[in-house]
Design a protein that fits this description.
- The protein is of the alpha+beta class and 204 residues long.
- The protein folds into two domains: 113 residues, no CATH class; 67 residues, no CATH class.
- The protein is 40% helix and 14% strand.
- The chain contains six helices and five strands, in the order H-H-E-E-H-E-E-E-H-H-H.
- A hairpin with a 2-residue loop joins strand 3 and strand 4.
- Helix 4 packs antiparallel against helix 5.
- It starts with a helix and ends in a 16-residue tail after the last helix.
- The C terminus is likely disordered.
Amino acid sequence: MSKLDIINHMLMTNEVASTNSLDSKHPDVLTALQVLDGLNAELQGANTGWWFNTETDFPLSPDENGEIHLPKNLLSIRRSTARNYSQGERTRYVQRGDRLYDTQQRTFKIGKAVNVDMVLRLPIDDLPHAAYTYLKHRAALDMYVVDKTNQVKISLLTDRTDKAWHNLRIEEIRTRGTNAFDTPAARRMQFNQSGGRNPNLIGG
């Protein structure tokens, strides 16, 4: 499983020759990369994170200047929900740029470790099978429907995408033991660019 494999699946679906490199300047490869990168960011940031890209009660330590620098692949962050903070303390620290900011003291110089819950954007090659499979089929569908009109093929691609989304949901519920899908972010992932919805999914 690799990002290149997904790109070639997208190209094959669109009846375009495969590529040996993600650095190709071919217009179809560039389009596929744009579609895939956008969808990957949307998927991984949905539902306030998934079981595979969420760090809970994670301690972030300051540098020698007392500042806490955030991971470059950070999608969202909040103070740890595992600790019994007051409402004011729970919302005290926020992301500003690549650092954590103290809204009470109005400073980046925090000077102590802060425990947080984080959602991180993982490389596609590191995604679990269920997430990778959904991303592959959804990306191929999204690229295909931009300028294609073969409704039979669109229906087939949509069916594959719906099944992959269902499997991803099942894996999330099995792993976390909760249903985190009836949210605006999750419902957005159920749309496809042909304008349809999946009636088998929440809100479909």
